[in-house]
Amino acid sequence: MRIWWPLWLAVSGLGACASYDGRTLVPGKSTAAEVEATMGIPADRQVRADGTIWWYPRGPVGFHTYAVRIGPDGIVRDIEQRLTVENLGKVVAGKWTKQDVRDLFGPPFLTAYMPRQQREVWEYQLRDNVDFRWKLWIQFSEDGIAREVVKLRHPDEDPPGMPGKE
């Protein structure tokens, strides 16, 4: 009986993967109800003039956040993975606001506050085109402006004690 347990977990996990990124949904055809049936309940919904964005951060250890843009008619406009190195290049410290960052990346993975610097920090995780994992920290001053954008290799990429590491 114990041998079947790992097999059951693997097979049930395959079914869940099909809905991870919404690949079976068809922009221009799929409905909001189909999105929810496929991808689950969104973590957040952002109402905009041109419809609604449903956010699907795939955490807590995930490195993807999917934005499903749904028109006022309830039809999917597009589905996009937003946590990318290309999108990171768009963030401009000193100009971008919390809302700009939120509109691009969706809800942060974690938030923290640094009282000595009086800055709020939003953390995201992402993968680059080579499949390295990164931690991304965006620091905001009290006026809501991004003041610093820090991208560091994920600590799991080079754990302490690996051969060649001091």
Condensed summary:
By secondary structure, the chain is α+β, with helices and mostly antiparallel strands. The chain has helices at residues 4-17, 32-39, 85-88, 98-105; strands spanning 44-48, 51-57, 65-70, 76-81, 110-114, 119-127, 133-140, 146-153.
Fold and architecture overview:
- The chain has 4 helices and 8 strands.
- The chain has 166 residues and is of the alpha+beta class.
- β1 and β2 form a beta hairpin.
- The strands form 2 sheets. Strands 1-2-3-4 form a 4-stranded antiparallel β-sheet, with helices on one face. A 4-stranded antiparallel β-sheet has the order 5-6-7-8, covered by helices on one side.
- It folds into 2 domains: 25-81; 85-153, Beta-lactamase Inhibitory Protein, Chain:B, domain 1 (2-Layer Sandwich), CATH 3.30.1450.
Strand order, largest beta sheet: 1-2-3-4
- Structural class of the secondary structure composition? alpha+beta
Q: At the first level of CATH, what is the class of the largest domain?
A: Alpha Beta
Q: So how many helices?
A: 4
